[in-house]
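Appendix B. Chain record.
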Amino acid sequence: MITANQASIRTVTSPATSPSNKYMYLFLGISFGTCYGIASLFLFFADFIVPITGELTLMHPLAIVALYSPSIAGLITCYVMGGTEALKGMFMKLVPRRQDLFWIPLIIGISIIFASTMHFGSLLFGIPVPELTYSVPEMIWLGIVNLIKETGLIGGLFGWIGFLLPFLQGKLKNNITSGLITGLLFGLWVLPGYLISSFGTSTTYIYYVVQLMAFIVFQSYIFNATKGTLLFYLLAFWLVATGSQIDLYYFNPQVQIMQFFFFAISAIVIHVIFKRKNVDTSLQTFPAYVLERK
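Structure tokens predicted for this chain:
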């Protein structure tokens, strides 16, 4: 439980809470090596590689490999640290506990508030918004399609959240610092996407990094309160990424700023609520949280 004299979330006493840093280096090496390696081929050797593979787009097989590299790295590291039992435990974290199912409608509700804030906030501050032409059924269908299009969503699930966040929590004994570092490294990993013009992004890179940092800190509270359930991060990331796809707002630098403040405030609010309600938010650490059945 959180008590008044604690700066963040308390840890679980476990012999596996502080594994060797070599596992983190393995994870980061595979993740960054794959992503930056593929990006470098197209940035520096485009004349040679493009005629062979074609232009790099988000749906290009090599781009998908790069986007999935954190999850691939996370699963490899999970196996190296804990074998098949840890790997099985990681996949089992996609299944929520019965007592945590209330988080599903709650996350959906928070996502609706988020999308409404971005839409009406844009109107309030004079930021252009798309014309709403989709019906509700069409919005739902486009949202489902976006789950498929967001290849990086599952691509980072078993890496940034499944491995790195709980690994850092075991090292640093603090969810806030761990969430900030996880978001920062996630953001640094994304950098090649902003350097390859074919991705055609209209967002600002530094804003995207601080968005990730605030979002992952917010998600770390839910992650710990639900004993490391990955489904809720998957659900939240997908819903947050869907608003601009169904034309509720444009994903531009002005909206990025609003999104940062939304999740920074949300992290503060959930911290205060959990503290006042004495919610059991024991730190989930790697590999203990995938090896222990809770």
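Further analysis of this model is presented in Appendix C.
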